[in-house]
Write a structure and sequence with these properties.
- The complex is a heterotrimer of chains A (109), B (252) and C (111).
- With 109 residues, chain A is mostly helical.
- Chain A has helices at residues 2-26, 30-50, 54-65, 68-96, 103-108.
- In chain A, α1 packs antiparallel against α2, α2 (30-50) runs antiparallel to α3 and α2 packs antiparallel against α4.
- The N and C termini of chain A lie far apart (74 Å).
- Chain B folds into two domains: 2-42; 51-239, no CATH class.
- Chain B has ten helices and no strands.
- Chain C is built from three helices and no strands.
- In chain C, α1 (2-24) runs antiparallel to α2 (28-49) and α2 (28-49) runs antiparallel to α3.
- The chains are: A mainly alpha (109), B mainly alpha (252), C mainly alpha (111).
- Chains in contact: A-B, A-C, B-C.
Chain lengths: 109, 252, 111
């Protein structure tokens, strides 16, 4: 019977979505969380197709999975770069102890 | 797997135990979710909905796809405001920071270059097809715009050197093209039929296609520029050298 | 009807998980992820209420159009929030640097 097969599919899809959602919100590594979010978006578009909403499924696959994931990854890279810049400056400062005419400091203060 | 969990537990308190305020929040969120569940379970099984009304007026909307008819004809005002929200997001991003494009020209691997050369035109073609298809099947301005935006993201990720030299004026014109066409059509309809976005009889299909094409271009450009994460390097207005924060130098 | 209930309850649970993470976690990227999961839950509830099985009539397109609008707006809001988070990180680094430099300066002049 088709109805029972579809219900079976629904239950598996829903459980996968919930598990992915929980993992992406709970993992320590933020990179892993973003990758899980992309796969979550792809499975969501499957759920939209199941809900007979192909327009939403197209938008979700292109925007939710295809664009939001890269946006998060770019932001993560940018934040890590800013963090590394800070670390590098600190070590440089400790090693040389030069605080005379630093343009960064004069502009900052 | 086991060692990984132990290390995770050491780095974060949360994995050992929730403190009392987090437990309180957990309780509150559980209460809220339970209330939501009760509401969902007690909602009527067959709500009347607007499917019949949409189906009744479908013939007069000028398009065959019900979702496109709702988006751009019956509730066109919502979509107009949404396009404005996208424009506002870009204005906000541009006023915050400059785009962190790489300083030096790096060598691009030939494989990546080949992929970009092959994929970007195909993506533009798919976007145009989706916009055209939106009048009778699933598709439309947002899906097409998302594909154009993805093509822009592909160009940005491969860090092509000519991206730095794009003049800002065409970018700005492309950004406001969709909203301008939308507002212009709305005003034209206001003058012609007396209703904002009340298309004249028979011209609905063409006007919707025009709005969708312009909006898809603007939405794609908007998404790609939001991915770029800031305003372009060469500005129209010459900025003071002191205005930006000094920490931008290495990261932007 | 069981399908509608199943998917709406999933959306509800996603909303709750996202809300809890939004409150408890401190990392800005995690907060933005949590808001996205919450938004997905709300969309799922909206679309699930409009669902009708095959052969039982036409689907109500108004919630679909609303969810489509919502997805696009949530992507643009996410992008703006991410740029704000990046700026937060960069400018807070600036403060930190100025502070450490000042403290080391005073130390050096003191000795």
């Amino acid at each position: 019977m088709i109805y029972s097969i579809l219900t079976f599919f629904d239950i598996i899809l829903v459980l996968t979505l919930l598990w992915l959602g929980w993992r992406l919100l709970d993992t320590e590594d933020i990179f892993k969380a973003i990758v899980l979010f992309i796969s979550f978006g792809l499975l969501m578009s499957l759920a939209w197709v199941r809900m007979r909403a192909p327009d939403v499924a197209l938008a979700e696959a292109a925007l939710g999975a295809g664009l939001t994931g890269p946006l998060f990854l770019a932001a993560l890279r940018r934040m890590r770069r800013a963090y590394k810049g800070e670390r590098r400056l600190d070590s440089h400062e400790n090693r040389e102890g030069d605080h005379g005419t630093d343009p960064e400091q004069t502009q900052a203060t | 797997m086991k060692t990984g969990k132990v290390i995770m537990g050491q780095t974060r308190n949360r994995h050992k135990r929730l403190d009392w305020i987090q437990r309180l929040f957990l309780l509150l969120v559980l209460c809220l979710t339970t209330l939501l569940g009760v509401i969902l379970c007690s909602s009527p099984e067959t709500a009347p909905g607007l499917a019949d009304a949409v189906a009744h007026l479908q013939g007069r909307s000028g398009v065959e796809s019900p979702v496109t008819a709702v988006l751009l004809n019956f509730r066109g005002y919502d979509t107009l405001l949404e396009v404005m929200v996208l424009l506002l997001a870009v204005i906000g991003a541009w006023s915050l920071t400059k785009a962190p494009l790489p300083d030096q020209i790096t060598d691009i691997s030939p494989v990546q270059l080949g992929v970009v050369r092959l994929l970007v035109p195909v993506m533009c073609l798919v976007a145009a097809y989706l916009v055209w298809q939106g009048s009778h099947l699933a598709g439309g301005a947002f899906q097409g715009g998302a594909i154009i935006g993805a093509a822009g993201v592909l160009l940005l990720v491969s860090e092509l050197p000519w991206l730095r030299d794009i003049p800002p004026l065409p970018l700005r014109i492309g950004l406001v093209l969709g909203p301008l066409v939308f507002v212009g059509t709305a005003l034209f309809c206001l003058l012609w039929t007396g209703n904002l976005l009340g298309y004249p009889e028979g011209a609905g299909g063409w006007l919707i296609l025009l709005i969708e094409a312009a909006c898809a271009l603007s939405i794609g450009l908007t998404l790609a520029l939001l991915f770029a994460g800031g305003r372009p390097e060469n500005e129209l207005v010459k900025a003071d050298k002191q205005t930006d924060f000094p920490c931008n130098r290495e990261s932007l | 009807m069981i399908t509608t209930l199943l998917y709406s309850l999933t959306g509800m649970v996603l909303f709750g998980m996202g809300l809890f993470t939004l409150i408890v976690h401190s990392h800005p990227l995690r907060k933005i992820l949590a808001v996205n999961v919450m938004a997905t839950g709300v969309f799922l509830i909206l679309v699930a209420t409009a669902y009708i099985p095959f052969g039982k009539g036409a689907i109500d397109p108004v919630p679909h159009a609303m969810v489509l609008t919502g997805i696009v707006v949530s992507v643009s809001v996410t992008a703006l929030a991410l740029i704000l988070a990046c700026r937060l990180q960069e400018t807070s680094n600036l403060d930190l640097r100025a502070k450490t430099k000042q403290s080391s300066n005073t130390k050096e002049s003191g000795t």
